[in-house]
Amino acid sequence: MLIGFALIVVAVFLICVLLFRLSIHALPLFVGFLAGSATYRSGSGIVAALAAAAISAIILLAVAQIVMAHAKSEVTRAVIGIAFAAPAAIAGYHALHGIAVATMPQSTWQFAVSVIGAAIIATASWTQWSRARL
User: Fold this and answer.
1) What is the pLDDT of residues 54-79, one digit of tens each?
2) Ramachandran bin of 38, using left for φ above 0, alpha for ψ from -120 to 50, beta for the remaining angles
3) Distance between CA atoms of 99 and 55, rounded to whole angstroms?
């Protein structure tokens, strides 16, 4: 029973890490989802939709990294950082709000935990993109 409890704790930790990583990359995931769903709704198959989603997310990441590497202006770097950090903050807020609703009684602490988590995830996304270089 102790081993089962330890495995559950490890599984929950790994799911939280995955949720954190996906929240940081919210913009490429969103762009990929939009491209994939548009391709699938146009009558193409599931394979074409998955390929369109992957290609569009990869292109977005590549273009962002190239622009960050060649940007001479701090304003350009800040705009790209905000473009990635804003969706990350929204995704982080909703992810942590869902966890807070499931684990806490309803109070203002749910909102506080969600906002703090959104700020941490937005900061992590900003940090990752501010040090992006080719």
Assistant:
1) 999 999 989 988 888 888 888 888 88
2) alpha
3) 31
Q: Which two tokens stand for residue 31?
A: 């762009």
Tell me how far apart the alpha carbons of residues 21 and 11 are, in angstroms, rounded to a whole number: 15
Q: Please give the Cα distance from 114 to 101 (Å, whole number).
A: 10
What does the alpha-carbon distance between residue 22 and residue 2 come to, in Å, rounded to a whole number? Answer: 30
- Maximum distance among all Cα pairs of the chain, rounded to whole angstroms: 58
Measured CA distances, 33 to 40, 44, 57, 61, 123 (Å): 10, 15, 9, 14, 24
35 close to 56: Cβ distance less than 8 angstroms: yes
Does the structure show a pLDDT above 70 at 48?
yes
